[in-house]
Amino acid sequence: NIISPIRIDLSRNNLDSELLFKKVKLNRMRNLENVNLRRINLNFSIDSLEIDMAKILSLDLSENLIQYNISKSIFHPSKLHSLELESTGLCDLDENFNLSTLIALKNLHLGRNCFTKIKSFYFLNNRELSSLYLHGNNIDLIESNSFEKIRFLTLLDLSSNKLIEFNQNIFGLNLLYGINHIILNSNEIQKFYVQINKINLEIDSFRFENNNLESFPKGIVNHLIKIDYLNMNNNRLKEILDSDFTKTYKLSYLYLRNN
To answer: Once rounded to an integer, what is the mean pLDDT over residues 190-195?
Structure first.
């Protein structure tokens, strides 16, 4: 008899992964929705996992040095809402690893990998994304319009990369209308190019510590009337005006140390 759980957690096992999947027949678990395979010494192609992806909502493959020779069919058909691929050695989203069929994806974790560039076609079909984590890579360039098709993005984490500027053109016409949380700390950002009237009024947290910013666009903080958390520690800010904070009634946490 084959059990058919909704969730299975096989994470942090030292067993031989190929042998493990011969014993645990995931493709026969018809009710399976959530699969955690974090750090299981995965030593073969994801194609051979034999998971019925038609019903899977959440898949965690983080901390595995995976062979990314993946056909588009592995994620098709797919209802996947959450995909975690942190610390997997992933450097590109090219023909060998394609997320274009994940049209229902809401949460995508690509942190602590080796991306150096975000290309404009990466997320063209992932229009339902609400949270995108790209922290801890080596990203120094984000192509224009890279996030334009992501209409419901509320959290963007680009911390601990090598960005030297932040430009609204990465959002294309979509701009910053839906984002609530922007995390840009621990980069090398010197320039911040954003039109005030293009930023979402609902932003409630902004992390910008540990960069090289000398000034913010005039009036931008005052525009964020619902901001609760603003961290600008460890930058090179030269001037803060009283008029920058006349409308920030919701601001609870303000950090300006070491400028």
So the answer is: 87
Which residues on adjacent β-strands are paired with residue 83?
Answer: 59, 108
Confirm if 102 and 124 have CB atoms less than 8 A apart: no
Phi, psi for 29 (deg, rounded to 5): -95, 95
Residues 6+ away with beta carbon under 8 Å from 185: 159, 160, 207, 208, 209, 210, 211, 231
In angstroms, rounded to a whole number, what is the distance separating the alpha carbons of residues 47 and 73? Answer: 9
Which pLDDT band, with edges at 50, 70 and 90, does 196 fall under? confident
Query: Radius of gyration of the chain from Cα atoms?
Result: 21
In DSSP terms, which residues pair with 205 in a beta bridge?
181, 229
Which residues lie below 8 Å from residue 172, measured CB to CB, with a gap of 6+? 144, 145, 147, 148
Helices (H), the chain: 17-23, 220-223
CA atoms within 13 A on the CB side of 241: 12
Q: Count how many Cα atoms sit within 13 Å of the Cα of residue 18 in the half-sphere of its side chain.
A: 6
d(CA 195, CA 245): 18
Determine which of 35-44, 106-115, 126-135 has the lowest per-residue pLDDT on average. Answer: 35-44
